[in-house]
Amino acid sequence: MALTTDVQAPSAGTTKPAPKRRYRPSAKYVYGTIAVLVALALWEIIAVLRLRPAIVLPGPGDVLTAFEHLFSTNEIWTDLGTSGSELLFGLLLAAVVGLPLGILIGWYRRLSYVFNPFITFLYATPRIALTPLLIIWLGIGSTSKTAIVFLMAVFPILINTATGMQSLDPAIVRVARCFGGRDLQIFRTIALPATVPFVLSGLRLAVGQALIGVFVAELSGAQSGVGMMMNNAGQQFQTSVVFAGLFIFALTGVLLNALLRRVERHFDSWRHPTH
Amino acid sequence: MPHRRATGSAHLEAAGVCIEYRDSGHARDPAVEGVDLTVSRGDFVCIVGPSGCGKTTFLNAVAGFLPVSAGSLTLDGRDIPGPGPDRAMVFQHASLLPWRTVLDNVTYGLELAKSMKRAQARDRARELLELVGLAGVANQHPGQLSGGMQQRVNLARALAVEPELLLLDEPFASIDAQTREVMQSELLRICAARDVTALFVTHDITEAAFLADRVCVFSPRPGRIIREVPIPLPRPREQRIRRLPEFLALVDEISDALYGAATPVANGGSR
């Protein structure tokens, strides 16, 4: 906890937020954008020089053309729909199961003793390796894919939530006890708010894991999906289409992460007093 | 403020109090042994003692966190069953809820006790923030405050429940020396304004002498009171009394009792 000695007038609530500075894009964005543009340019140059044939290394232009191609047919929408719903339902299910379970495991020590062996086992195994089993059990359709996404995503959420519940500041709990606070009150006023940041970073981890789940699940047999589309394109050496698929995955991850960061900032504003 | 100016009547009474920690399988390990102490309403009593002497243990027992293994410890004649809203504790670390604003931190104890409506609680909290000189930062978060300010919020939070007995466990130990002196004066001012009965644990002799009506010196573990030094200095006390010969004599008396006890040839006879 940083100790600042001088305290300014509370900025929240006052209408004028300090003298307005002229709009200047922050250094972060300037440098970031320049770096990306330079990387794209280098990529294009290497591709244009044709050190390697386009079938091995397409340039950004080729990828753009591939995008155009992809989106001129209806197939891509089916693929996006399939992968999107696998991702969404898998993630939702992971949150719906992982959050309450994590809270319970974190709050009731005995429950954590019961569940820990299973969690440790499943967390230690590469869950992707369960794909064949899940396909045997749930078939080749999107149910097995959603199950894999769920398995990938549930653990970061569950473990982070439980960790948050277990790492309460004992001094704060003692204060609450001192005021005669009951378990349920401590749960509501201390445990839940203190766990929110843990939950959110768990969700962000889960997004990354879920995307891996979508891709790998679709590799082992699927009727549609962006991962399957990439796999097929790869087998036909449509390298630029593979790149296009890659960017779809990357963009999804970036967008979901940005969304969660926004939520995080909302709940976490007390951590960043300078904002 | 409710009128409870019944100064003089015994509020907290400890008679032959023993507190021991029992580890499974281990022998008894007394932390406090045979403590006799009476705190009357309106009293400000300080406990000083070498570190590890059990002074904090004793305070925890008064707060209701620890059971007494022998002797009696009563508040207004009744045993202490556990923590309760009639006592509030101020710890060395402010331990504020970092996600709540300063104002909502001050109302926290009232919220747990469910003793009043939210709007009422907030009114009282504002009043207390005024008292501790923090009215301007009510809507900030604790992370934006200095250590001294956080400790003021902590104090306001404790006072908000209008405790009959305020328990302070080295509240200023982690504050820099200059701020600490300011905080001590502030505490006295606030206690006078609110008619607070206080039991204050510290290892700082000067602090004890400056604050207290009476200073109880604990022996090394197992702790017991080896000397009670009354501090007859008039109130309100200003910083400059620290340089008065009477004050220095009292400090000497306390430290003699304290360090005399720390040497093997203890003079633990009369108390």
Describe it for me?
The complex is a heterodimer of chains A (275) and B (271). By secondary structure, chain A is mostly helical. Helices cover 74% and strands 0% of the residues of chain A. Chain A has 2 domains: 27-57; 61-271, Orthogonal Bundle (MetI-like fold), CATH 1.10.3720.10. Chain A is built from 10 helices and no strands. The model of chain A is unreliable at 1-18 (pLDDT under 50). Chain B is of the alpha/beta class and 271 residues long. Chain B has helices spanning 55-63, 102-106, 108-113, 118-131, 147-160, 177-194, 205-211, 245-262, and strands spanning 10-21, 29-40, 44-48, 70-75, 78-79, 87-90, 165-169, 198-202, 214-218, 225-230. Chain B has a 6-stranded mixed beta sheet, with helices on both faces. A 4-stranded antiparallel beta sheet of chain B has the order 2-1-4-5, with helices on one face. In chain B, strand 1 (10-21) and strand 2 form a beta hairpin. The two termini of chain B are 37 Å apart. The chains are: A mainly alpha (275), B alpha/beta (271).
Strand-residue fraction of chain B?
15-25%
CATH uppermost class of the largest domain in chain A: Mainly Alpha
The count of strands of chain B amounts to 10
Output the structural class of chain A: mainly alpha
Please compute the radius of gyration of chain A using only Cα atoms.
24 Å
What is the makeup of the main sheet of chain B?
6 strands, mixed
